[in-house]
Sequence to fold (211 residues):
Amino acid sequence: MGSQVPVWIPIVVALLGLAGVLTTQVLSGRRETKRMAEETAREERRWQREREARTHETRAAAYAELLGVLEAFDMVLFRTLRSHELGKPVDEHQLTELREVRSETQHALGAVALHAPEPVRKLVSDATLPRMRLASRLMDPENLGEDNRPFWTEGQRGYRLLRAKMRLDLGFDAEPLAAIEAIGAQPTGVSGSSESTADPADTTSRPPPTL
Fold:
């Protein structure tokens, strides 16, 4: 009588083979899932870096445009302010220049308001409003030139704070904010203090033009 293989042995072997196949598939699936997750994460990091680079570039361009028009605004403002203080009439050419630089400044505000973080946006008005108010006063034929200088001083202080904050936001070195805040720290339009008659060269973002 020949030997017979128990029926359960082939069944066990088959089950073990099936389990091995299933285990291999599960492990392969997990490896594939992990690989896809890693690729997705790498792709997301790459896109994040690209987005940050584009944001940095866009923000830098917006900052540069606004600072540029504020510098131009200062050149025109100071010439007109000095004429006013020396008792010279503000001619039509000066008025036209004031209107133009004021308009350019207003147009440059949009990009900064859109792309800048809140700490920078909060400082924009401190740099622009004193200039706008001073320009309006200088264009007013009834303005006698009194109490104009504090607007200039406050505008310069606001500009330096804004510029420093922008540079810090872009990762550049910047003038210490505490040192700037200590300069001309007074409400706009206040007269009668030594700050209101300070030499613009002490506060302006660039040397004032000579008349």
Remarks:
- The radius of gyration is 34 Å.
- Residues 186-211 have pLDDT under 50 and may be disordered.
